[in-house]
Structures are given as C-alpha cells and as structure tokens.
Write a structure and sequence with these properties.
The chain has ten helices and ten strands. The chain is of the alpha+beta class. The chain has a four-stranded mixed β-sheet with strand order 1-4-5-8. Strands 2-3-7-6 form a four-stranded antiparallel β-sheet, with no helix packed on it. The two termini are 23 Å apart.
Length: 382
C-alpha cells in the first residue's frame, strides 16, 4: 500500500479547508450550548444538510456523494475537532444504514436511502441489549414469522439517536442458534418503537442515547436485511467498516484539545513568561501531537483498506487497532490538555473539559477497547 492510499489527496485537502472554516464558523459556536442543553440540536443538523454532509457517505445511485471512507473519516475528524456530538450526528445514520447498503434488497434501498441522504430521515443501529453488549450473540430480542410479516419483541440499549431517528436497524433472534439464529430488519419508528429511557451521560450530551422497546411490532418481510440467520455476520461486517470512523472521531477530539491548549499556553503567563516557553510543558505537547499523528495515520490506513475492498482480509485487525489506539490517545491527550490548563481546565469556561468527557466514550462504544484487543489477538494467533 502506497502512502497516497491512506493520506489525503489534493481534492480532499481542499475540501478539508472548506470544511474546517465551516466547522469553526458555524459548528464551534454551538458546541457549548449543545453540550449543556443535552438535546439533539436540529439547528446543527440543518447546517449539516446545507453543506450536503447528510448525503456525503451514501451511494450516488440514491442521492449520495459516493465519498470514500477516507473522506468520511476526514469529515468526522474535522467535526469532532470542534464538537464531538455533531461528529456523531454525521456518523450515526451511515452506521444505521450500512447493513441496508451492503446487504439490503434493491427495493429496500430504493425506499429508504434517498430519504436518509436528503436528511428527511435518520437511522439508528439497534444491536446492543442490557445483557448483550460486548457479547452480542447473546441477544434475546425475538422476531417470529407471521406469514409475510415478522413480529418483533424486546428491548435494545445504548441506542444513539433514540427518539430522534425514525428508522432502526434491529437485530433479533429468529432461532436458537447462537451465531446463525440472528436476523436484521429495518424498522420504522412509527410502527411501534417505544422510547423507554434517555440516558444522562458523562459526555456526548448533544447526542441522545436511550433504550428502545418493541412489543409485538409488525415488520414486513420486505424490510428484512439479508438472509434469515445472517444477522450476526451483518453486524460484524458493519462494525468492521464503522470502527475506523470512531477512530477518526477520537483523533478529532484530541486534535481539538491540542489546538485550544496551544493557544492557551501562548497566553497564560507564569513567573514572567508564557507557559508555552516551559520546556517540560512543550514536551508534553510534543508527545501529544506525535500520538495524534500516529493515530491519524492508522485510522486513514484502515479506512483506505475499506475503500480498497479489504484485499488482504486484514480489515478486522486494522479497524480494531485504529479504534483502540486512537481512542486511548484521545483520552490521554485530552487529560493532559486539562492538566495544562490548570484549574481553568476543570471548568466549563474552557472546552477541554468537554473534550475530555467526550473522549471517554470512544474507548467504549462500537466495541470496548478490551474487545478490540481480543479481535487483534485473535488475528495475531490465527
């Protein structure tokens, strides 16, 4: 793989410049109120629509832009650099619709993808349950065949955009087989999806997370995604292709913390000179910047592997590495940036405390970093 395959080309860099200005001028001013309001910001979502970012990640045949995953990662990074909640707003419908894009029927794609690309619909990924997070093969939500329909009953936990999305990709058990007894369905919220709870979270407060419940929700077989019993494979296939973008989000959070900390260090004086001139503190920032650059390169390599069609069948390993390393870097870097702000870093007057809170979830969702290390180890010892 050449260097150019996992770095930005000239067009991507030009787009990055436009996007950075958009983020700094339009998204950053809303970041604090989005966090403190703890609600989905429709104002921010309209800004994403106006920039055509809701369509960026989707196939052109359904109104999308056919953007590469490297480009999508760059967008996720730039958004997260100023507001991690907005970054997730950009990522979540793609996650929710990836099973449809890769395994759905032509009819299913035709009926739903254009609405999502236009920003008229949003989608969530409903896999985890209260007792089946890391161990997703243990899900208990059931789907029972009823003629041309399926009757789905059960609850799903940790659902991003719960109550905001109108579409849910739901994984349900259709037989007792642990790995081959799970099937995926695209469920419209209006068919009876209930919101049992919205979580009060440490970070990403501008992105709702909740528990959804289905009590005998009727779903037509035409809304089944893939074959009966193929759900576990679809879920893992999807996460392999989504985890690198969580790594990109983590990189963006860390880069944002570095950027604001560098400016603070130039302005903050102690003992007669800026703390930016203190060698010990300079070295902390040098280490932080090095870690972020390493994480970014690993993320882009994993994304380039997706774009290339995973020719060497090493995406699971690379995606797990990218997600785990980048999120660990984000947590370490944002913590150091809070430290470099001193007492001010512990207040809401400065954005680094929000960035540190937001960074934590990147080590947990879409597979904890302990699970990522299991994936990596399995590949190493295969």
């Amino acid at each position: 793989m050449t260097k150019r395959e996992f770095s930005l080309d000239d067009d991507q860099r030009e787009f990055q410049g436009v996007l950075r200005r958009f983020c700094e001028e339009k998204i950053a001013p809303l970041a604090k109120s989005t966090d403190e309001g703890e609600v989905f910001s429709w104002e921010t979502f309209e800004l994403l629509k106006a920039m055509d970012l809701t369509s960026l990640s989707f196939p052109s045949a359904y109104g999308g832009s056919d953007a590469s995953l490297v480009t999508q990662a760059m967008v996720a990074e730039e958004l997260a650099r100023v507001c991690a909640s907005t970054s997730l707003m950009f990522l979540i419908s793609k996650l929710g619709m990836l099973p449809v894009i890769n395994f759905g029927s032509d009819d299913l794609k035709r009926r739903y993808l254009p609405k999502v690309t236009a920003g008229e619909s949003q989608a969530s990924y409903a896999l985890s349950e209260a007792d089946a997070g890391s161990d997703v093969a243990s899900i208990t939500t059931r789907a029972i065949r009823d003629g041309d329909d399926w009757i789905i009953s059960g609850s799903k936990s940790w659902i991003t955009n719960a109550g905001t999305s109108d579409l849910y990709t739901v994984f349900a058990r259709t037989s007792g087989d642990r790995h081959h007894g799970i099937t995926a369905f695209l469920v419209e919220g209006k068919w009876g999806v209930q919101i049992d709870k919205l979580e009060k979270k440490l970070g990403l407060k501008g992105s709702p997370t909740g528990v959804i419940r289905m009590d005998g929700v009727k779903v037509p077989d035409a809304n089944r995604i893939g074959a009966v019993g193929e759900g576990f494979h679809i879920a893992m296939h999807t996460l392999d292709r989504s985890r690198p973008t969580i790594g990109a989000q983590a990189v963006g959070i860390a880069q944002g913390a570095i950027d604001v900390t560098l400016e603070y260090m130039k302005q903050r004086h102690t003992f007669g000179k800026p703390i930016a001139e203190r060698q010990g503190l300079q070295w902390m920032m040098a280490d932080a910047a090095t870690k972020v650059e390493a994480a970014r390169t690993l993320v882009y390599r994993a994304c380039a592997t997706v774009d290339a069609g995973d020719p060497n069948k090493d995406l699971s390993r690379l995606g797990a590495m990218a997600k785990a390393f980048a999120s660990d870097v984000a947590m370490a870097v944002t913590t150091d940036c809070v430290q470099l702000h001193g007492g001010y870093g512990y207040t809401r007057d400065f954005p680094v405390e929000r960035m540190m809170r937001d960074a934590k979830i990147t080590q947990i969702y879409e597979g904890t970093n302990q699970i990522q290390r299991m994936v990596i180890s399995k590949n190493l010892f295969a």
